[in-house]
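Quick start: read one record
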Amino acid sequence: MRDKDMIGIEDFERLDIRIGAIKDATRIEGSKKLIKLEVDIGEGQDIQLVAGIGAEYKPEELTGKFIPVVVNMKPMRLMGVESQGMLLAAVVAGKPVLLHPDREVPPGTQVC
């Protein structure tokens, strides 16, 4: 890693990463990869995410999964659907692999 690519702790601290529970998942019409997710991020708060994981995951297998989510992202629109955060995933051979806590934690648990 080159020095210019390094960030300080203050940059990392700006990220609000929490464990979210996927409540609902649906394919976005007209897209092979995009899935719209309704995610509980704790304290009675849900956000909507759009994730490019549809080539690897079916919506029905996502409901109930716990995932890390960056919740303080600026909203953006993908194929006309607003995404209010970003899930974190590993990429293996160009394909997304969802990350999960190794034991049960409540939605909204902060990742640090």
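The chain has a mean pLDDT of 96.
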